[in-house]
Fold these 2 entries.
Entry 1:
Amino acid sequence: MDDERVKRIINRERAARKESERLLESKSSELYEINQNLEKLVLERTNKLSNALKEAELAMKVKDEFLSNMSHEIRTPLNAIIGFVQIMMKSTYNEKSFFKHLSIVNSSSKNLLQIINDILDFSKLQSGKFTISLVNIDLKAKLEHTFSLFSQEAEAKSLYYELFFSDDFPKYLLVDETRIVQILSNFISNAIKFTPVGKVILVNVGYDHKTSKLKIEVQDTGIGIDEEAKAKIFNSFEQEDASVTRKFGGTGLGLAISKQLIELMDGTIIFESTKGSGSTFGFEMSVETGGDVEVIEEKSKEEEHGYKGKVLIAEDNEMSAILMETLMEGFEVEFEIVADGELAVEAVKSNDYAFVFMDNQMPKLSGIEATKCIRTFNTDIPIVALSANALKTEQEEFLSAGMNDTLSKPVNQEDLKLMLDKYLK
Ligand code: ADP
């Protein structure tokens, strides 16, 4: 081979090697980049997973704490109810303490009911099923009444407890009174709970005619809230003091519900607090003034008891039946109790009843089934559901089955009277 040829071959070889080295280099840098990206991706995914895990663990912890709180909150009043009832049933019971013990049983039962209502409201709010309904009412009278419901509690702690209205507070406002009362009750009961003996609670209610804004504030000089807890107390299930040996009871749902209700009504929350000096909880929202409402004249005593016709009560639970019997004895009206849906249908068919209180979960025919059946031959008789199914969807089912109204258990004499006044006069 001549030299020239050898050189050419060597050069070609070198060029080929260089090219393959360049290719290798570029491939390996590509590979390096891919690897880097992969590592980044894996890291990102790992972080995301670990955050999700942390969030899930936190949610579980919050739920666990909530359940343990709930259990505690339910057991505490139950303990008082069961304990005092047992004491009162003893033959050696000292009747001197009868009213004191009975009032503990009464307030403990109301406590229990509040917890159940809170849980129901909270789950309804969570699922977006909550609606606001505006009614033209004398809000001042309503708020005065709500305020007065807590005056005994405030008095028992010797608190200075006052309610103030701005001078030109309108007589009628278009508001969702139930929700406003619910929020105010939450703020006042917290203020009383977290304010030590002898301190001050002021409830200020104002209406600005220029901006159409209603403002309600509950100020207390109680224990206040520290900076760290301020961020949490409006969260569901959270309380400032999460320890097992919490000094004050409560489910930690009240403020979360109030906040969501205020937002649902397009209002803004007012909240200020200083640890050791006190807190202010309130809200401001646009509210239209309403027109005058026709005043319904008070009925005389004779008119009050003038119920026309016989009442049928369909109730299978023995305890509830005894309770209904005792409550109904307070009215001057004839009544009869039947223990299932089938008997209710038969009774309406064969007797001259003018009104029905209908339980739902009963043997043979449920209240809904019995009502549907009654409506095939009697479209006029007023039927009012009296059931422990308190959810709005369940209440709607009662109405669409043909019932005229609904009451949820527990009921009191006032609730029954309202219905009898409405349908049996
Ligand atoms: P709870 O039923 O536990 O009172 P809330 O949601 O109403 O639930 O309140 C949550 C927490 O906020 C309370 O446990 C308490 O720590 C704090 N808090 C609420 N109102 C006040 C107040 N007026 N003064 C001091 N702390 C308060």
Note: Confidence is low (pLDDT under 50) at residues 298-303.
Entry 2:
Amino acid sequence: MKVLVINAGSSSLKYQLIDTITHQSITKGIVERIGADAEFSFSTRDDRKIKSAIDAKNHTQALTYVLDNLKDPANAFIKSLDEIDAIGHRVVHGAEEFSASVRIEEKVIKAIEKCCEIAPLHNPPNLQGILACREVLPDTPQVAVFDTAFHQTMPKSSYLYAIPYEFYEKYGIRRYGFHGTSHRYVTMKAAEFLDKKLDEFNCITCHLGNGSSIAAVKNGRSVDTSMGYTPLEGVVMGTRSGSIDPAIVFYLMKKENLDAKQVDDILNKKSGLLGLSGISNDLRTIWQEELKGNERAAVTRDVLVKSIRKYIGAYMVELGTVDAIIFTAGIGENDWNIRERCVSGLENFGIVLDNQVNRDAKGAITDLSPFGMKTHVLMVPTNEELMIALDTEGVLKK
Ligand code: AMP
């Protein structure tokens, strides 16, 4: 099956055409700055990147460009749009409405609309992507794959906050968790790699990128995760603070004369690695500064590592038996130094790294622990788009 995977943002439309038989991406690309000075870039069959300015005033026009590009004979991706068997959409928030991927019908659109209140930045553009596809390809089946769905198996003890219960009942304030598609994908891949049955597989998945989250997975199901009601909670991220004492919010509002929106902005966009280091949200840049002797860069890395280790420790206790600790996403897949620091000194818990293998790991799933360890440390490249494509196929074949 050929599935067009769509990830629609407020002014962008990211896509990938995936063959679910070969698991290969046929092409991928993005339309950015929809609405003003739009730019379209895509990858050719021989993996060259081509960029051009286009006139796309809305998501429907952006999608039309993408589809014209897909069927352009010069690119040799597909001969006609009939070859696109289905469309799979990344939808950020499914709240308690969705615990699995679903075929998009009228009542699903209504439910996604309802979730906009909880995810006002993400769900409305996701919905725009869905509506644009319905307009341009009305006969192609569409499936929604939710970032939150994997974590819907969490027990109440993991998802309730200790605030008055009525706020959960009235407003749905609880932990939802995000990056679910990635956590689920790397869990599946790791179980397969270690030849374990998914429903008997326990792991801690560390999705460490610009946004980061960690999940505790018991018998293949998420039982806890670090992100919460929003993606702000949890480990230190590129520009997000992760968990802090909530009293800091009120103190800052008073002292700096800020309103709620301004503090929200600081915690989401000016904190994390960027705020602490004063250098960058990109760990590679911070690492370069650390090598030059910049102390704030060094302490930023230490704070990041400590925040990750706290979750690993907590989830080891929560799971009891851990078959694998998994590192994935930009930092988790590429930064051997962070991986090394995150699991150093855990020998007494049966967690050991083969340092050379860890340093050499690149591009493919790798067991970073020495032979015979009960708890494996794995680097698993994530592939959320492939997971969305496979889910889309799975839902439609049901
Ligand atoms: P992601 O959000 O998964 O695309 O991850 C992006 C982040 O991964 C960047 O902000 C970098 O901090 C980090 N990253 C990517 N490549 C490397 C690398 N080779 N070494 C260290 N960090 C990296």
Note: The longest helix spans residues 295-319.
